[in-house]
Amino acid sequence: MNKKLIGTGTAILVTASILAGCGGNNTPADSSPANTTSGSASAVSDKPFAGQTVTLVTANHPWTEAITPLLPEFEAATGIKVKVENYFEDQLTQKLTVQFTAGSETPDVFMYRPLQDGRLFFKNGWVAPLDDYTKVDADYDFADISASAVNTTTIDGKLAGIPIITERGVLYYRKDLLEQAGISVPKTLDELVAAAKKLNDPDSEMYGFVARGQRSPLVTQLASYIFSEGGDYITDGKASINTPEAVKAMTTYGTLLKDYGPPGVLNMSWPQAFGAFAQGKVAFLTDADSLYTNAIDPEKSKIGDKVGFALFPAGAAGSKPVNVTAWALSINERSKNKEAAWELIQWATNKENVLKTQQKGNPGARTSVWDNPDATKTFPEELVPIIKQSIANGVGHDRPLVVAVGEARDAVGEVVMKVITGDKDVQAAADKANANLQAIIDRDNKK
Q1: Which fold has domain 33-166+325-393?
Q2: What is the pTM of this model?
């Protein structure tokens, strides 16, 4: 792909195709990517996919808003027409599932949530492995993409997607409250608990801590606690949420919400948690860095100029926040235009275009882009080094890696809910949840 052609844009609903280009070199769907000239559309005469049409299905997401308007540049360089369809998250998953189940050859390229839908899509044979494609053009520099982000999109040793949006677990805090109380920014989970306790003042409607408390949503944020204590959801293929490390992490998370959280934490997903923090009612919040605008945007937050950011507090194993791919691009296994589809993905995720989309506030996965000051100007200055350190320390998943993700999240989340509601026997709850998670794993293994 011509290095001068870079693209960003805004979410447009149906079509972004112009400049068809002539020629009709229709590459067979099963041709080896090693035999294509992917990435070499630098000359007008060098358009091996001219005349092909690629259907791109995306989520209604800021990344889509940052890539669509410059698709005409890609079309002009390659002669490939791009048809764009845009859906809300749940509609997107439903649409893809219906089309793939029916054996549809479209869409050619699709945006998806690797940790939520990836294993289902891959296990059903709906995703074309991308490993060989990434090796065709050395200038694409696949090694520049964060290893933990790639880990998120890798299933059974195969690359199922290319990361486009990443996020990490971080600590949000009130600078003014810590300064007034003479408290240092917590560097460990024990320090976080102590600081939350000190700043908790329910009589004044000021609470020490908030995070997601709903059973399923909390699991992705609980992960950073579990990893930092040295645990995991699944270890060596076996459920491991009843280990001492996992139980300690779930107890810490649940206790913070039970003892120092605002009313209604059991009903809180991220919008409610950020809402309480942004209204100035909470001292500490742990959640994804990608949601930072909800804490500092003057239109959403009363305390935007008082918000600080810190590395996720360390547990017994150190600071091990999640560093995951929230959204990725992949190719339909039944697509008849796989090479043209890869040309589009390669273009959209090259260094130049990741820079452009990141400048629009979309946290990407390329190390070189995070090292480029031009890519971080729209991010809070204090947050950037924390993101970079979290990328280096991060773990590439935030929930149990199974096909029935929702069922597994419910099993794990139930333990934390027991803690929040005051159940004293956390180990018994964890043992029960572990058995349920193991049954889900065993079911996967039989397929």
Answers
A1: D-Maltodextrin-Binding Protein; domain 2 (3.40.190)
A2: 0.87
